[in-house]
Every structure is written in structure tokens, then in C-alpha cells.
Amino acid sequence: MFCVNPECPDFILDGAHGEYVETIWQCPVCGATLVPELPPEGPADAPDGPAGDFAEPTEPGSLVGIADFASRDAAELARSFLSANGIAAHVTRKRLYVPDTQAEDALALLRQAENEP
Q: Which CATH architecture has domain 63-115?
């Protein structure tokens, strides 16, 4: 099942349609009804979101990608850790995004956690 909503934050940030198991019928990010197959790709599917390895903020208060993880579960764990430390974070697929104003603090917290036993 796929979210084909072009305004879904997951699509805007990641540039790819969210993919979910067949038992999910509604996008957990934007609430749109999921479809069983992706529509054919074309110019209308070009992402408006960030490109490259990590996003650069395009306007004050925007989200910036700070880390990629081996799995979505690992990214969600990092998101939870940052949230517990007062930093709002968002995961799309396996990439972790935070507000650009908190990127340095988030990276420092992740590095600190990585070095702890």
C-alpha cells in the first residue's frame, strides 16, 4: 500500500511515496487513503523536497536531514531519543530530520549516545 499524496510530509521530505504493509489503509503521516499500486512515474512525481545526501534548510524553521540509518526502526529509536531530550524529529523511511535551528544540538546528542556504553 502506498501514500500518493504529493503534499504528504513523508513525500516532501524524502521524495518517495510512503510504502506500508497491506493491513494499513490510511497514511500514518498525512491521513490520506493508501492505494495498492504506485501510479506511473512522470514529471508530476518529481519531489519538491530536499535533494542530495542531506537537506539544506530552504527557509527559517525548515527541517534538515541529519542522519541516515540502516533501518527505519533504528531511525525511530533515534527520533525517540531526541524527542526525550526536547528535540522534535521526523523520520521518513530511514532518514532523520530535525528543525534546522536544532540540528547541531541533535547531532551532538546522537554522537554522545553513540559513544556511551
A: 2-Layer Sandwich (3.30)
